[in-house]
From TrEMBL:
Function: Plays a critical role in recombination and DNA repair. Helps process Holliday junction intermediates to mature products by catalyzing branch migration. Has replication fork regression activity, unwinds stalled or blocked replication forks to make a HJ that can be resolved. Has a DNA unwinding activity characteristic of a DNA helicase with 3'-5' polarity.
A matching Pfam family: RecG_wedge
Reaction catalysis annotation: ATP + H2O = ADP + phosphate + H(+); Couples ATP hydrolysis with the unwinding of duplex DNA by translocating in the 3'-5' direction
Organism of this sequence: Salegentibacter holothuriorum
This protein's name: ATP-dependent DNA helicase RecG
PANTHER family: ATP-DEPENDENT DNA HELICASE HOMOLOG RECG, CHLOROPLASTIC
SUPFAM superfamilies the record matches: Nucleic acid-binding proteins, P-loop containing nucleoside triphosphate hydrolases
EC number annotated for this UniProt entry: 5.6.2.4
Family that this chain belongs to: Belongs to the helicase family. RecG subfamily.
Amino acid sequence: MNANILQTPIDYLKGVGPNRADLLRKELGIHTYQDLVNFFPNRYLDKTRFYKINELQRNSAEVQVVGKITHIKSVDQKRGKRLVADFIDDTGKMELVWFRGQKWIRENLKINTPYVIFGKTNWFNGLFSMPHPEMESVEEYKKQLRTAMQPIYPSTEKLAKSGITNRVINKLMQQLFIETKGKFYDTLSEEITTELKLIPKVEAVFNIHFPQSQELLAKAQFRLKFEELFYIQLQLLIKNMLQKQKIKGFVFEEIGQNFSEFYSNHLPFELTGAQKRVIKEIRADLGSGAQMNRLLQGDVGSGKTIVALMSMFIALDNGFQACLMAPTEILAIQHYNGLVELCKDLDTSIYLLTGSSKTKARREIHEKLENGEIDILIGTHALLEDKVKFKNLGLAVIDEQHRFGVAQRAKLWRKNKVPPHILVMTATPIPRTLAMSLYGDLDISVIDELPPGRKPIKTVHRYDSNRLKVFAFIKDEIKKGRQIYVVYPLIQESEKMDYKDLMDGYESIAREFPDEQISIVHGQMKSDAKDYEMDRFVRGETQIMVATTVIEVGVNVPNASVMIIESAERFGLSQLHQLRGRVGRGAEQSFCILMTGHKLSNDSKTRLETMTATNDGFEIAEVDLKLRGPGDIMGTQQSGVLNLKIADIVKDNDILKLARYHAMQILKEDPSLSLEKNKVLRFTYAQLAKHKNIWNYIS
């Protein structure tokens, strides 16, 4: 349809007016007709008809079924019981489930009596189930007046108080369709719609707001979710392609003395198959003539640093410098010490630059960097300062990239006339679904095996009431010559939060272990005091390290074999996984003990169960994504990327993969979208380039 009418300010829609328009803008971000069209319902009430069990669809609608209960049973679960009833009609069977009020429900349910049930269905293990259904006997039901199937829109407290109810939104939507005559141009090519049997755009938009049937609603949802995810993927893939075409990179053809000498004579252990594969992928990038932009994912302890070092050797062999940027001073120092140790028999010049580097040392570094005497510079954000000038930076490695914003990465690009190759490393495993959506413009390498000889860390959950046994276990480990981490979530007592704080914990540990040396580290200490304490622990002068999460990233003490996490329910899954990765770095068996009180939320239980069940970072990341959703995991600098209106990258994982596949196939055949059959895609993509929010242009 004429896109101009869709850009009409919402104030002009009949029934809105200035006050309502102001509220719609502030509360729901609805500024134009187009925004209103793309304000999608989040659920539906369907009391228009009765469904047979064999007609139920796997969508988010609520349905009404007539049938009878044939059997009721109590089922044990991890916490308490649930009540399950078998519900049948003449086409099949489903289950009704109750988690609360079971005694009353059981007493009132009648076997073999016809009931009308209403609620949202779940599909699990080949069977539909309905948790806590609305129920009434058919006899009662016949006495009631009923309304038709209706969409339920997201709302806010302010809107409800101001009288903008679901009914009002529904009326505005009807008015909008009258004014626009419901004409919407298709934004997907005929080839895609035919191949995937997608319903036309106009039908999808109409049925998402005014569903004519369950089946049409499912088709409308699929069509609009596919479209949203398809254009996000197209955008990311084109960005990646253009980057490779436009941004020329240094061609590192030479595999020379540094790389070969280290690989043949100084490698401390045999590389794993995964490390070899990743090095091959990086070598191919570095020799391609396009700028490398690669994300290297690998669990804690999987050997990313060796891969980074060998990549830096390729830069050195081709006459270039390399740098490694870490998010904290502690981690930068550790990388520095680790690389100096690995290169001690090589003629490689490695320097460290952090916020606390003295002026004299800085001057020397600036000078040597510019005249090319420094091969590898390791540091923190200090590397980004304008004063830091390289002679010829060829490769920049960024560790724990989610700690750095896009603007900071861009500063590294400007350290050379031709941007250096970029290798981004993270030990925070990113679920594949999220990686495809967030980093679709980066190439991704994964190290998915641990070096040989590493024993998996044993993880257990213990309640505060088991503390004495835990202390006894710590004493045994210290006798064996091992070291212990004890991590707390807070630095000082908070009246609102009844959690063990660090100072309290330190005192009780000191009382319990009077003969042991104890280090303490937290974020409010001055960095030299922090470094001093860390250093004592690294050298083995202290047996116990009491700390906050400042030790989360990167600290490497092979002799530390026990990680105790206090108030573990306070931590997110990826944080727990990162902390656990501080142990298990030597050949001995390591342990992670998650301490909590007895009162735990369901999410906390899921997190603790996941931690004790698996060491696989990717599995943990998938659970984390389901619990927290993509917004929290992405962090602020990425949050604009996935402002999804209808799709959900966790639940709609299959549609996401399908969308990415089709976007890739189209670009493989027609990279510039210049073929006649892709005309509509080219037009829509051009509109997209002008707007940040994809729904501003795909109506």
